[in-house]
Amino acid sequence: MTSEPSRAAAAPPPGTTRATRETTRRQLLTRRDRITLAVMAGVPTVLHVALVWVTALASVALAFTTWDGIGFDSIRWVGLDNFRQLFADNPQFWPAVEHNVVWFAVLILIPTPLGLFLAVQLDKRIRFSRVYQTAFFLPVVISMACIGFVWQLVYNPDTGLINSIIGANRPGHYIDWIGDPHLNLWAVLVAASWRHTGYMMILYLAGLKSVDPSLREAAALDGAGEWQAFRNVVFPTLRPTNTVVLVVTIIESLRAFDLVFVFNKGAQGTELLSILVTGNIIGESSRVGYGSAIAVVLLVVSLAVIIPYLIATFRKERRA
Amino acid sequence: MRPSHPGPSVPSPSRRSLLRGAGSAALLAGAGTPLLAACGGSGSAADPKAVTVGSNASDAVPKKAFANVYAAFRRQSGITVRVNTKDHNTFQEQINSYLQGTPDDVFNWFAGYRMQFFAAKKLAAPIDDVWARIGDNFPDAMKKLSKGEDGTYYFVPMTTYPWAVFYRRSVFTRYGYEVPATWDQLVALCKRMKKDGLVPIAFGDKDAWPAMGTFDQIDFRLNGYDFHVRLMAGKASWTDPKVRAVFDHWAELLPYHQDGFMGRTWQDAAQSLAARKAGMYLLGSFVAQQFTDRSALEDLDFFPFPEIDPAHGLDTVEAPTDGFMVSRSPKNRAGVVRLLEYLGTPAAEELYLRTDSSVVAASGKADTSAYSPLQKKAFAMISGARNLTQFMDRDSRPDFTSTVMQPGLQKFLQNPQGVDGLLASIERQKKTIFASS
């Protein structure tokens, strides 16, 4: 995001004529230009460093301390203690890691193919295509917190829609969608998938629009069926979209927070790393050091997943 | 994430306008810092005719009740109270940074460990001078609750309410139940209710704190007040067989709790008591808020959680107490003293209770003639108690109760068999939390 203005500065705006471009190139940079450049590159850099790097590094540093958030002189260095406690003593940590992984697996296995399927259908210019598009995309527009709120009404054990319909709100027949640790993660994943499907659909729809129609024509002329054409011609051309989809899904599953927090505050069965971070840092007499340690784990996991993938992708693109 | 179809053609800004934009953005960012810093500020400096109060009374009824009290104070003293109200939970979550920034002169807070914590951190000012005037208005148990660990006063109590077992009189009459006085009678009553097709004990633990109330009751009835306090303060061990016994008792009662409690809020659980589907409900007296029907409210009654160990009897009542503290360097110290002296009078409490009838006065001298029968009973129960506790999350470190005890108790409720492993884990985590600062 912060790189936007500097890119705009490097490439002359499309409106400028060829002549002016040549004159600026011939002259050395004037003083004013240099100031302009310094401000344009400097302001975003300062903001980026202050808001991203300094805070991230401060968080990493705090992970090796204990601090209750009251006055800077109460920060004490404890080395690896936070991590030792986290890995050995925190009964919520490993379940949280597991749930983040499950979250990713479910999102990539169910809503993503479903979104692709919907996109392919909508791409056929069927009637009312816009209406369907809007309907499937609407959940993406709603904030996660609202989605969590709406779904916890649906899942409410006493008055919720589901239990009322199937008659599971009588003593002895209860299905506790929100509280039962064997059920609640799946219940909340239904809500997450409901939203993610629409998101994936839009991404794939955009990708499909850019597929050269002549490719399909050629495939049709060669006698390829619909499925064959999709599998061998259309899908391979969607590779850039797939990269985006994968990265977006990984990010979604690592930052999953709001939905669950509203749903049941990350009670047993739905613990997530992000909720553990918030639970430890926000609030009175907070455990800033310990919470930062969890945040660092989350950061390392994100980097470990994203960096190799991006390196591989860029390498492939350079070769191509 | 850039869709590959051509984007809308927006006329691109010239370099100069971009630059101007960047300049003003930088200006904005520069100006933003003092603006942000001023956010926590409480307005103008020392005005001898005004005192600022940071309030967590965001609900309509208490907000109005406090407004009436401050208006009366103004008429009496000529000092205006400027109230800065924040959402109840937000206030609590931000209390750390609030007190370190530029807090109001006086702020709403809770008695007990949660008050002592901020006193020990020097984020609150001692008010022994106020107590020299108001001390006679309060019973000894309240005095104990208002002192920091150093023995000086930091807190002026205003209102309190008890935790007890609530029931509907009509249900008890209809089935011929009697109020249980001992643990065995309680278990027997639960069995009878189950046979009669009632949910014996209404329960909802979605918000994770109600379970702490049940633990408190069983613990101080079984092990006594002193042990409970030492356990909450991190001094007694959670692996002590006494704690194990608490969970054994609880497990005996658990089959009579309402099903599906992990997904139910206390409000919904209270509704099942109001609808006569459940026989009893252990909660604070705020349960009455859910009894919107007048006849149902008049039918509501309560009894103290029954005796378990005769050595302790019913000597302890869980009575969370709300009141006021003074921030570390109030701008108008003289005005603060006058305000607190007023708030510590029975008259101020009576005025408050005229609007908010869900609580009772903390002072032993307040007039009780306007009380509802429920309030009268609550008042008698609290003033007759030898010891008052404040609720687990007010009697212990909040970081411990929120990150360890809330999930821990929920784990027990799901799997009552795994107590030993759970208690060992709680003890390990407790040690590290209580060791840190």
TrEMBL record, chain A:
Which keywords does the record carry? Answer: Cell membrane, Membrane, Transmembrane, Transmembrane helix, Transport
InterPro entries, sorted: MetI-like, MetI-like_sf, UgpAE/MalFG_permease
The residue ranges crossing the membrane are: 35-64, 101-122, 134-154, 290-312
Pfam families for the chain: BPD_transp_1 (PF00528)
Membrane protein topology class: Multi-pass membrane protein
Task: Give the highest taxon in the source lineage.
Answer: Bacteria
Q: Where is this region: Disordered?
A: 1-25
Every copy of the ABC transmembrane type-1 domain together lies at 97-311
Subcellular localization(s) per the UniProt record: Cell membrane
The record's family statement is: Belongs to the binding-protein-dependent transport system permease family.
Q: What is this protein called?
A: Sugar ABC transporter permease
TrEMBL record, chain B:
Report the domain of life of the source organism: Bacteria
InterPro entries for the chain: Bact_solute-bd_prot1 (IPR050490), SBP (IPR006059), TAT_signal (IPR006311)
**Regions annotated as coiled coil:** none
Pfam families reported in the protein's UniProt record? SBP_bac_1
List where the protein spans the membrane.
none
Q: Which UniProt keywords apply?
A: Signal, Transport
Question: Known Gene3D superfamilies for this protein?
Answer: Periplasmic binding protein-like II (3.40.190.10)
Give the family, as the similarity comment puts it: Belongs to the bacterial solute-binding protein 1 family.
The protein in question is named Extracellular solute-binding protein
Q: Which organism is it from?
A: Streptomyces misionensis
